[in-house]
Amino acid sequence: GQPCGECVESESMKCKCGSTTKEMKCGTDFRCDRRCKNMRACGRHRCGMRCCDGSSGNGNCPPCVKQCDRKLDCKTCVCEEVCHAGPCQPCKKKITISCFCGATKRTVACTIATTSPHLVDPLKLNCNQLCKRPASCHHEKDRTRHKCHYGVCPPCREVCDVVHEDCSHACVLPCHDPLPTPPQPSRRNRRPPVPDATPLSLSDVQCPPCLALVKRRCLGRHGISDVECSAPPHSCELECGNLLACGNHSCTRRCHTVSHPREICELK
Fewer Cβ neighbours under 10 Å: the N or C end of the chain? Predict the structure, then answer.
């Protein structure tokens, strides 16, 4: 004989979670669209499964398959395993820190970085390479080189040597070009901030008045002494000594401006 056909009867049927009743064809696997709000066995993640058997509170939600996401012993990383019972495995990640130029590196376990932060401080790395950043002053070509480092470069120790426009003497002071302003540190970045360094043009160098020693006569022309180039005309503080207009007595005032020595004093 021929096989029987499918059942064509309908019946009132409840979905798997029991929240919805509907007239359905006999033998239909009826599932509603309701998402299960119960917690899974892990106790931390909601089920979220469509029409779950556990929605009725019988504990039949499937095992949790989400990422664990609990903090590991390093207090920084999270567990990436499938949600599980019991304690998580110790953090196995490694942290690599490097000097500014990248030539010197150190790798430590993430857990050590938490318990001994000084081991991951890039400022403690001793790199023997020379600093590759350009000078922030005008001594880029002839400056004394220093080792690789973070932060602002140490002050330049070279003599300024910029020629003064008004006297042609070279500035004898140590380099006094302005230092770049350090940027504000970032809480998210372990590395200290690095300022932008651009060599300063000679035309931008601002020197104080010339301090070179030159020989000049005093105001009263009594003698020659060493004075700073930028100093105003000076008095030697000796008695003037020039004849007064009477022609009989000498000026007893302190050294002052005269046209020619040993002549009649112009002061009245």
Answer: N
Beta-carbon-side half-sphere exposure of residue 205 (alpha carbons within 13 Å) = 25
The pTM is what? 0.48
Residues 137 and 143: beta-carbon distance below 8 Å: yes
Cα torsion 22, 23, 26, 30 to 10°: value is -20
pLDDT score of 268: 47
Q: Is 204 in a helix, a strand, or coil? A: helix
The helix or strand, by DSSP H or E, that contains position 115, with its residue range, turns out to be helix 110-115
Tokens of 4: 């029987």
Query: Would you state the torsion angle of the CA atoms of residues 123, 126, 128, 134, taken in this order, to the nearest 10 degrees?
Result: 0
> Which parts of the chain register pLDDT below 50?
188, 268
d(CA 40, CA 36): 10
pLDDT at position 227, please? Answer: 93
Mapping DSSP to helix (H, G, I), strand (E, B) and coil, where does residue 112 land? helix
Output the CA–CA distances (angstroms, integers) from residue 237 to 57, 218, 222, 227, 259, in the order listed: 108, 9, 10, 14, 17
| pLDDT tens string 120-134 | 777 778 899 998 888
Long-range contacts of 46-51 (CB under 8 A, 24+ apart): 51/15, 51/16, 51/17, 51/19
